[in-house]
Amino acid sequence: MTKQTLACLLAFLVLCAMPHAVPAASPASPQALQGTWVCSNGQHSMTFTFQGDSCTLRVDSMQMAGRWILSGTQLRVQFQNGSTQSWHCAMDGADLVLDGNMRFRRQGMPPLGPNGTGQQSPLEGAWTAQIPQGQMVFQFQGGRYASFLNGQPIEEGTFAYFPDGRLQFQVTAGRNAGQRGENRIVMQGQSFSMYGPNGAFFTFTRMTAPQPQVQPGPGATPIEGRWIFARSGPVSFGYVFSGSRFVYFINGAQQSSGTFQLTGYQITFRHDSGQTENVGYQLKGNRLVIFTSEDPNIDPIPFVRQ
Prior knowledge:
flat, 8-stranded antiparallel beta barrel, Lipocalin, mainly beta, 3 domains, 6% helix
């Protein structure tokens, strides 16, 4: 690849930037970057693919390959022609953000194993454990997981499993949406023990009965799931409704949580802080509109299902 082509590629990075700088919620991790990410401004698109410590950068029809390293918040790429480029790198919820204004959405599922091998993890399938609150079920499929408590969905996310037993995860839906972490797995045939950072653990056994699916079950409310503000802007906010609980987030970071109840065309929020609020709502397919006031001069707030 010529230096002229590289210059064109880097020039296109500016064109692919989103119009507003959006603050990222948390640092990225090397495993979280594995996979393919796309940023588009409607006229041009830029695609990053990370596989192990190799990567490719494609802008429209031009592509170049190289090696990458993540040092703190700096993503540094050494291209095959000897040139180097670096960006500030962070995660905003499930999105990858470079230099504060280039927002990438993941395409497909992330690889399961380290170094981007994509090998199926031994966790594939459904597992159950009895915990103090009842029956906990984890379902692992591809690079995604879902958890259920007493038959109700409580959390979804992506994960990467390493041969040394590390399980890195990022929560994409549920009361902890936007959070990430690492647990340790000790496999024991048809069971495994999952250890948290504090050393506490639960032992799960593989399920052979029909497995729960990541969708609302009997008795779930019609607004079950993750909703985000329908209009683009410098601030992204929304709700996650799971069972009888909700989480309110701004730019991927949790701001409030509690329980909620639907009555007719009204939602009653009971925040864990003790505050209670009532709002009106309308639900049409994958569009949820919340009315915070009866004053016609105050616009309702539209959300779309993710």
